């Protein structure tokens, strides 16, 4: 996690990478850059706790994965971990609202990038519905990347759409490392 200070917002910004998540009740921001990945942003407006994850692949919805997959690289683990840390930080599950971003078809590598973004979006919607957390805003799909910044205390999310350029090519390279067939168990 990278923590720059931005004068524009006069706050620290916790930048999360693929497979990471962050929860806070401090006066700061959380940000990430998304390609085909998805971020679920949760906010408790009563207790002023917010959190964001950044997952790359949906994962399988089978009992073994739901309870044993501790990798936030997969949506199932990323959403479960985010919810658990939100509650641990003082959020009330009944007050949570969600915003979902990402799932752009931006990867041009050899694996099937047409289904991964859609599967990531679908998983986020299904898991939030199962958890009875309303989605109050969603900016997903398309053929572009997104930069998002979430203000912790208010839950506001600032979004910038990014057209294909060298930033997208960097995302493509990073996300391609996790492509099916490229993963090596260590």
Task: Describe this protein's structure.
- The chain is α+β, with helices and mostly antiparallel strands.
- It has one domain (5-174): 60s Ribosomal Protein L30, Chain: A (2-Layer Sandwich).
- It is built from four helices and ten strands.
- A five-stranded mixed sheet has the order 1-2-4-9-10. Strands 3-6-5-7-8 form a five-stranded mixed sheet, covered by helices on one side.
- It is globular and about 40 Å long.
- It starts with a strand and ends in a 10-residue tail after the last helix.
- Mean pLDDT is 81; it is low at 181-186.
Helices and strands in order:
Blueprint: E1 5-6, E2 11-15, E3 21-24, E4 29-34, E5 38-44, E6 49-53, H1 63-68, H2 75-88, E7 97-102, H3 116-130, E8 135-140, E9 145-151, E10 157-162, H4 166-176
Parallel strand pairs: 2-4, 7-8
Antiparallel strand pairs: 1-2, 3-6, 4-9, 5-6, 5-7, 9-10
